[in-house]
Amino acid sequence: MSETPVLDSAAVRWSAPPAERAGRPLLVLMHGYGSDENDLFALAPHLPAEYVVAAVRAPLSPPFPTPGWSWYPIEGLHGRDPDIATASARALVTWIDGVRADAASVGVLGFSQGGVMAIEALRLAPDAFSFAVSLAGYANPHPLPGDAALAERRPPVFWGRGALDDVIPAPLVAHTVQWLPGHVELSGRVYPGLAHAVSADELSDVSTFLRKQLPEA
């Protein structure tokens, strides 16, 4: 747990080759626990084509026999440790800083643990991102140095979750319900009948939100 997380640049899925990325808005996707970069990349065809999509792989390995990768542990003594989540988010911000180049804008979108990363990255670097999308995620209940600047800037954030989602602990959902409106321009929706997943209705709402965040020509 003491090692500094680092994202593997060789494990990133891009929707466009380097020659086709200049000057376009960049959207970085973060998967959930036990998954990998291929998971959310499957959403790319359903998102506005103006974005260059980059789906990254989380830097940590869950304990055997859980497959895939994680942003922070959910089990044992370090389960949901916000400091580990913050360390992974710092690694994410560092990687984005290295690839953003002349992107017209940069946004982050994540599911579950990736949704936590989206909010955490926004809190770490409020001026670095134009918006965030958190699907079935939450805001960690610990202060970060960028929180005051975030509350002043109030970037747009879409937070979607299922009414039947019992994976995210209720106290974390309750904290997020209170915390987000005081720090961001929130677009939130709870989807009836949805558990810990992404529905077609939610994906449609996300696509609409993303279109509204496109930089003006």
Tell me what you see in this structure.
This protein is of the alpha/beta class. It has a single domain (9-212), classed as Alpha/Beta hydrolase fold, catalytic domain (Rossmann fold), CATH 3.40.50. Helices cover 30% and strands 17% of the residues. It is built from six helices and seven strands. The chain has helices at residues 37-41, 82-99, 113-124, 147-153, 170-179, 200-212, and strands at residues 13-14, 26-30, 52-56, 106-111, 131-135, 156-162, 185-191. A seven-stranded mixed β-sheet has the order 1-3-2-4-5-6-7, sandwiched between helices. β2 (26-30), α1 and β3 (52-56) form a beta-alpha-beta unit. α2 crosses α3 (113-124). The protein starts with 12 loop residues before the first strand and ends in a 5-residue tail after the last helix. The mean pLDDT is 95.
Could you list some keywords that capture this structure?
Esterase, LYPA1-2/EST-like, AB_hydrolase_fold, 17% strand, 6 helices, 217 residues, PLipase/COase/thioEstase, Rossmann fold, globular
